[in-house]
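Exercise 7. Predict the structure of DNA replication and repair protein RecF from Phreatobacter oligotrophus.
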Amino acid sequence: MAEAIHQVDETGMGAQPIRGRVTRLALSRFRSYRAATLEPRADLVALVGQNGAGKTNVLEALSFLTPGRGLRRATLAEAAHDQGDGGWAVSATVEGPYDEAVLGTGIDGGDPETRSRQCRVDRVPVGSAAAFADHVRVVWLTPAMDGLFLGSAGERRRFLDRLVLAVDADHGSRVNALERSLRSRNRLLEEVAPDPAWLDAVEHETAELAVAVAAGRAETVRRLAGLIEATKDPASPFPFALLALDGTLEAGVLERPAVSVEDEYRAVLRDNRHRDRAAGRTTAGPHLTDLLAVHGPSGAPAERCSTGQQKALLIGLVLAHARLVAEMAGFTPVVLLDEVAAHLDPARRAALYDALEGLRAQVWMTGADPQAFEALAARADIFTVADGVVSR
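Solution. The predicted structure, encoded as tokens:
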């Protein structure tokens, strides 16, 4: 993450980013598609079709160009066409900081127990989808996220980690490693007489990973909050958010050296062994952190705002995050907006389209109502989706 951070100033503003975009997307045995190819030419791309036609499947395919399980958090097997052999593939030709590259990912058919996700850049195998971050970044907003501010802290923590992952492709692997380390500690504590030396070693690793995860989150939120403050428009229909993290380690890494915070957390883990053994879990750490948001113009906590206010606040937050990714990565992300315009009035919908054009990013949108995209007819690629077929 440090390599990307040094490219911008304290507000997150920097040189004009390069445009990142997908120029060709090919799907094979993916969800509802036996085979499909899209070649968008415009920065704004709209997929129109009835509910269940497969619009979101296209966005999900694009979301697999990042580490993780995509925008549906699906297992690899779930993404396969139901009449295939269990394998699937997504290929995308992208333009970015290294001109053009072909990114490919998917799984082979056959025994589900032996399947693993494969990733390639220009047909050369790479270790994971983290390697795609040199060529493309992807951010998204889906209807499932509409209840973010009313949902659990775990949902907001996953949202937060997606924010970090978009600027630091290795963040996901650190989060996963931390979860494994916490499980190892919990299993040791379940033993009648755990080996103290082994427990010390596991807690040493846990503290290192915990502080690394907390530092990534804290720095991303700090920079995002700085960018929002520097670019906020009180008159915007998508209000600015005031952000904070409810987490001891996240607060600590912004104030003290990481080594000091690690030592403090190791002491907490050691002192809490008896309590954690009784609870059956680790009761302190970044796996409990929460993302707090306030509706900037009114000062009201996001969870107390109306449904409409929360939706507008979330859209504003995702747009700000897209700008942050562009500034930190040096090229604009691909933005995926699933059914984002469905419940917006015409004025706010028009304002959204203007804001999206202002991002200078490629934006893929879905919608069931063709009228929602009438205002974009002259400035967007509009595709019709029906029965596993996509046509311009």
